[in-house]
Amino acid sequence: MASQSVRDYLSSHGINDEPSESNENASSVRSPKDSKKNAIPRILSVANQKGGVGKTTTAVNLATALCAIGKRVLLVDLDPQGNAGTGLGVRRAGLRVTTYDVIFEGADAVSAAQQTKVPKLDVLPSSIHLSGAEIELVSADRREFRLQSALRVPMPYDYVIIDCPPSLSLLTLNALVASDSIVVPLQCEFYALEGLSHLVKTIERVRKGFNPRLDIHGVVLTMFDKRNNLSAMVADDVREHFGDKVYKTIIPRNVRLSEAPSFGLPAIIYDMRCPGAKAYINLAKEVLKREKELIGKRQQLNQDDNTHSDFSEEAV
Ligand SMILES: Nc1ncnc2c1ncn2[C@@H]1O[C@H](COP(=O)(O)OP(=O)(O)OP(=O)(O)O)[C@@H](O)[C@H]1O
Ligand SMILES: [Mg+2]
What we know:
This protein has 316 residues and is an alpha/beta fold.
């Protein structure tokens, strides 16, 4: 999508595309909950057990960019830190129903979702109670499937994006069991690939034991600094390791991306012309292109197997 059409999208929803402190004037923002069309959404987890690699920044801005392209998206904040929710302007004080209640109390995810200032984007906020979830999950019934039961149901969303915590804990395991695919952000730094074998092994384990549909959707290089040779070397290394799985789009290091959350806005709304926002719009386009290819492959497999699939073509 050309940036002009993103501007049209924002202005048609009453959102100013100049860098701003509030953007409170998003008058015609609509929640997907207003829509009556329900289907099982495509579920993508943004996961990497390494801390600070850009998971939340990617989840928030990818979700926003998908909305700008016309998709209805639910962003699920699965991290007790709650950065995805606060980055979208959701105040934690006073929240009655959160991801915790959806996982442990059987609360309905759609009812619990909060409308954001971004048209077509809702967020299921997390709560600090999630920090005790690991211990509670150990003895819980169907402990790996709690999120799957809550999210793999007909919803008024095309996509669910899950922002995972920085660990390979039972919470992340729940996200992987619920997901169709994983987006892995990798920071362009010396230790980028370190620990990634654990993530790949975990994905294998989940695929064999709990969720055969799971695969890596793609690896996204984040915080790329073009003035730094190391960034380019790391990017080459990662491409050698993961080949075509690495998205062509690279997310540059861009201060606008780190400023935006403090205004409760995705960078795409805070400053749609900054290089970081443009990169996330390109990433969303690439994600949707891959989705089409995945559908083609899945349909081929289904024809070969003559088996039924719940893969929703309407999401793409
Ligand atoms: N491309 C970027 N350019 C500049 N700053 C960035 C970029 N991406 C992320 N940041 C900043 O880096 C920090 C870590 O990013 P983020 O919170 O997205 O990582 P994370 O993987 O979700 O972290 P955690 O593991 O703690 O959940 C944040 O302060 C964020 O604003
Ligand atoms: Mg995070």
